[in-house]
Target: Olfactory receptor
Amino acid sequence: MLGPNGTPFQPATFQLTGIPGAQRDLTWIALIFCILYLISITGNLAILALVLQEPALHQPMYYFLSMLSLNDLGVSLSTLPTVLATFCFNYRQVSFNGCLVQMFFIHTFSFMESGILLAMSFDRFVAICNPLHYATVLTNRRILAMGMGILTKSFITLFPFPFLVKRLPFCKGNVLHHSYCLHPDLMKVACGDIHVNNIYGLFVVIFTYGVDSTFILLSYALILRAVLAIASGEQRLKALNTCMSHICAVLAFYVPIIAVSMIHRFWKSAPPIVHVMMSNVYLFVPPMLNPIIYSVKTKEIRRGILKIFYKSPA
Model:
């Protein structure tokens, strides 16, 4: 956008698009998003309450699960204001500074989720490869330190982003392609030298997703080697079964990220709705799926839920 004297400037507000071409179906889209938020928020709050109330769940695995649920709540609440405003009330404007704040929290919680999944893979590695020292390795103090480390790393890494964006002029309009603010979307309407933003963004992605996913794969390579060394087939299956919930959570998080990256790199001519829908999957599906995955796959969580609903042990 250009100012009165023809120079580029920062707009007072950004216009959110939502889903291109779906303006006539706002009621149905709003209903779908409300259901997604309801499942996500209710499910993650239930996990947190369950771990807090059940003494049997006061174990490292469930402390990490609580971190994941708390983070998923952060992801959902970060997008909720503008998504509901866009689809429920057809209010599509967000202030410039409000957009930067939302962008910061969305990306911070996303990167934190990657770190929490890495910590959970370490938990499974110790439980299977070194079970005799599990309680001494994963003490409450170390778990708290790991959680604070993940939070600090994500906060410090993402902290420069709003300031890097704020220094830029915007001469390509103020229309964003989502119902929330993302750094790549803002770069599409910014002008001037955005090399610093792009380079730093690439560094953050590699430093976070790249490093975390590499260590997750390494953890499971070591876990698989340890499991294959178990003589009993039944014991091997039991050991692998303790990892299934975490494997599903990792896939639910990383598959959409990989898909978004592949589309951006190799399908540049893809319709805008493809990018929008994949970004929605990336932000909305993991927070919704994680409570369901752990409720279905984890016997202790399932038993605790049944106790809450039926007031008796399962």
About this structure: The beta strands are 13-16, 93-95, 175-176.
